[in-house]
């Protein structure tokens, strides 16, 4: 298992651009989880830990793509109907014991192995059978192409092909592909185990009474849900009081049996923000000043080889920075090869002006214009504390640092929430 460097998060300088931050995360973070064997039936959502090389061809033999008749193309008339003697029958799972002879046809079913010398299959709907005496003939219309409806051995997978790379997240299609070569057990990375907590004497958990001056803890629940969608195992340590000793002892214990420690808010330089001081005592803390909106500096540090990520405190900023910065870091720690979400070009249904040199994310919902093309509608309120804006939106429009303005109708990058996880 790879280990983090002593200064994996270290960075100094002016405001950092988003692309630079993401490149640094890729460069400085490595896998921190071990491997384990996993039954194929339970492998959906896991990260593959080694390449899968097929030892067999798929399909293993030439076979029929339809129910119909296997023939030799050379026996077919190019101009009129062809009559061939029906001499056999091959069902899926059977093997013909002899090749097709001249002017013969064999009844064949989808998936059945092609008989020797047969190179073309006619769909049963295009043919008719005609019995004369002791023989049954198949009457075939003209116009079929040589090799029609015949699937070749290895046309999907050849023996020796690397069908999946290490670091691949196993979706239903990867599970099916693996099953097609007969594997039942895979080597996968263990889930990233995350210790998650909130801090603050004013913070209350859902379901508790809410005294004056206090707030409910939304961020911990949002982050926990986002982590679980990534396949992490989340140990919820609850809400810690504003006590240096409690926070230090909790961090120290969490570093013993977790791959990542995470929180939101509580990492500023205020007198009651003790997380920073505790991490400075136990390890190292770095602040990345990012040129972004929404969001404030990310608190990144480590206790030994255990990384710490402190997200901003505002609910919208928490989710946005999780999606664009914490998510790729976590995927990298967990062995994933692809860490960037897919974005799509859509038409903006609004004009905009923004500050030069800052990456920004706008909350939008998608509508359809008169031609049916997707168009992004901006949520009317921009506040970083308006969590309803995330619920009523379909995703984020990402605006690059160089952009300062655009008119309605401009094509922009759209990051759907469905891509996160």
Your description of this structure?
Helix content is 17%, strand content 31%. The strands form eight sheets. Strands 7-4-6-5-9-8 form a six-stranded mixed beta sheet, with no helix packed on it. Strands 16-13-17-21-20-18 form a six-stranded mixed beta sheet, sandwiched between helices. It is elongated, with a radius of gyration of 30 Å. It is an alpha/beta fold and 421 residues long. It starts with 17 loop residues before the first helix and ends in a 5-residue tail after the last strand. The model has no long low-confidence stretch (mean pLDDT 92).
Short structural description:
The protein is an alpha/beta fold. The protein has helices at residues 18-28, 172-180, 219-229, 244-254, 275-282, 315-333, 388-391, and strands at 35-39, 52-53, 63-64, 68-71, 82-90, 104-108, 120-123, 128-132, 135-140, 150-151, 162-164, 185-189, 193-199, 203-204, 215-216, 233-240, 260-264, 284-288, 292-293, 298-303, 306-311, 344-348, 352-353, 359-368, 374-378, 395-399, 405-406, 411-416. The radius of gyration is 30 Å and the shape is elongated.
Specify Rg, calculated over alpha carbons.
30 Å
Question: Which fold does the CATH topology of the largest domain refer to?
Answer: Molybdenum Cofactor Biosythetic Enzyme, Chain A
Number of domains: 4
Shape: elongated
| Helix percentage | 10-25%
Main pleated sheet:
6 strands, mixed
The CATH architecture designation of the largest domain is: 3-Layer(aba) Sandwich
Counting helices, strands and paired strands, the structural category is alpha/beta
Please tell me the overall pLDDT: 92
Q: What count of helical segments does DSSP give? A: 7
Number of strands: 28
Can you tell me the CATH class of the largest domain? Alpha Beta
Spatially, the strands of the biggest sheet line up as 7-4-6-5-9-8
CATH superfamily of the largest domain: MoaB/Mog-like domain
The low-confidence runs, each spanning 5 or more residues with pLDDT under 50, are none
N-C termini distance:
24 Å
Strand content: 25-35%
